[in-house]
Amino acid sequence: MYQRILVTGGTGTVGSALESIKGDYRGRNFFFMGSKDCNLLNPEAIKDYLQANKIDSIIHLAAVSGGIELSMKYPATLLRDNVLMNINILEAARLCAVKKTVMTLSTGMYAQDVPTPILEEYIHSGSPHKSNYSYAFAKRLVEPMIRAYRQEYKMNVIGVVPNAILGPRSNFSYAASTMVPALIRRFYENRQGDAKIVVWGDGSPLREITFANDIARACMWCLDNYDNEQVLHIGTTEEHTVKEIAYMIADIMAIDKGRIEFDTSKPAGQFRKNTDNSKFLKVSHFKYTPFKEALEITIKYFCQHYPDAKKLRL
């Protein structure tokens, strides 16, 4: 049993979710690292942190990521910073003899034309969507990193692949939010009156979105129980169209759905990227929170705390 667990990205969506349920893992000491605690672009700083806190395992959640606008505006930053952080974490784990490391990838790394449902084996097949190619290649590189460090250094390092994530500590900022948090904020801030509420695209793309608490629990399950170089899809396979999600948000906030307008002049992103999580389910028998329930929890939290910058990432 791993006792001193470092969670990078500890103030992010999944890190905060794990902190909220840490009481379920009695006898464990968690270290939730945010950007203010350690610069993951500085390898010496990571090594010093691991040694000072006697870390025996790592769940590496930290990443530079966001929605379509951020990915298209800062491709070099996303590629550079994510690759450097991943290498730095693995090197520090090696040098400090960390017993186990969980690396996270992303379903956004897959090519837009791979067969569906997407299998983990398709990771290096084809070109990713042009809207997020740099982030996608950075995440793809995690898989050969895992194989290489296991092969040469006999490290216990594994990879998990979440899909889109939703939770109370989602990033709701205008510049970096993904689709659902962006819609939650937009609908809330425009809930009064009768002006149109604009949603990018035609509403037809399908999305799998997993509750952050479920991803946190899945990461902990893999830390304790999974030791193979094969990366695993750990997200739900429940799908909804962007239009369905927009209508759910409107219903929960008591907003007239007739006010929603789909702007087809704006990019909608990849149409569909449904995944196969059967490898994970076969070994874990995991149960997921229904999407609507996750959405209701997130919206309730957002409405209660808006616009408190200490509670929401705005």
Q: What is the name of the CATH architecture?
A: 3-Layer(aba) Sandwich
Backbone structural class = alpha/beta
Rg (C-alpha, Å): 19 Å
Helicity level, as a percent range? Answer: 25-40%
Note poorly predicted spans: none
Characterise the protein shown here:
The chain is of the alpha/beta class and 314 residues long. The protein is built from eleven helices and eleven strands. The protein has helices at residues 13-20, 43-53, 68-73, 75-95, 133-140, 142-153, 179-189, 212-225, 242-252, 278-284, 291-305; strands spanning 4-8, 29-33, 57-60, 100-104, 157-161, 164-166, 197-200, 206-211, 232-233, 239-241, 260-263. The longest helix is centred in the first third of the chain and has 21 residues, at 75-95. Helix content is 39%, strand content 15%. The chain has one domain (4-305): NAD(P)-binding Rossmann-like Domain (Rossmann fold, 3-Layer(aba) Sandwich), CATH 3.40.50. The mean pLDDT is 95. The two termini are 37 Å apart. Helix 1 (13-20) links the parallel strand 1 and strand 2. The strands form three sheets. Strands 2-1-3-4-5-9 form a six-stranded parallel beta sheet, sandwiched between helices. A three-stranded mixed beta sheet has the order 6-8-10.
